[in-house]
Amino acid sequence: MTTPNLTVQKGIDDGPGMPTRAVKGVVLLVCCAVVIIPFIGVVATSIASQQHVTNSGGFVLWPDGLNLDAYKAIFNGGVVQRALLISVVIATFGTLISLAGSTMLAYSLSRPGSFGQRPILMIVLFSLLFSPGLIPNYLVVKEFGLLDSLLALILPTAISGFNVIVLRSFFMGIPDSVLDSARIDGAGDFRIFWSIVLPLSKAVLAVVGLFYAVGYWNAFFNAMLYINDTAKWPLQLVLRTYVINNTELSSGDLGGASADQLPPQESIQMAILVVSLVPILIVYPFLQRHFAKGMLTGAVKG
Q: What's the pTM value of the predicted model, to 2 decimals?
């Protein structure tokens, strides 16, 4: 009598779970399709033939073959290739400058008794709540002579208050005994910071570095404000101008290729979009193993 009762009870417990898991699976598949299908369409349109793009109304979900004419056109020495190089330079040097400045500031704010710790911390926290307006920002950049300079895309956003607080929280979690033992051995503050703190902070540095890199790579608004010379446009501003605003790329914009040999504008636009996505897609997998650990920094006190 006991065994059937256990079987019935087990069946009752398992019954409601199956439909729930099925519904969750369907919802997950739908969400994945909503994200993946547009991306597949973008890639497919960028490599589809001119006839296929025309027949499908400008958006292809499955190409009839591999046609790289759109990529050859944008890498022919024109505006897109130049903008890509500028974006790589801005993202690389901007991330390095931001990481260096934020890390040193956060470490100094994490050490009790450091010079000006409380007032500077209040300024950092104040920046999280209030930000200067558009016109004051522009006037400051103009007064420093940074208009039409790539530094205008780096220096105004070099330090993020949020990232400084994240780094400070992590540094405060490093045991004092580790730092004190280094001081007993004769290490100074810079030696402790360089040889002990930074090696222990790889996870949070990877996350903060990714935040900065994505921010610099995707930024276009500052370029639209401060850069008047089209030769200094970053890739995202080119993307906004020629893809979102649907401005047609001429043969001169694509390195002087003859107009009759240009691929469809839809393929060129989708190729620019793919090029703007690929660098982050390449970098992210290398930082993914640090991402979960770094995002939990400061969430648990132990």
A: 0.81
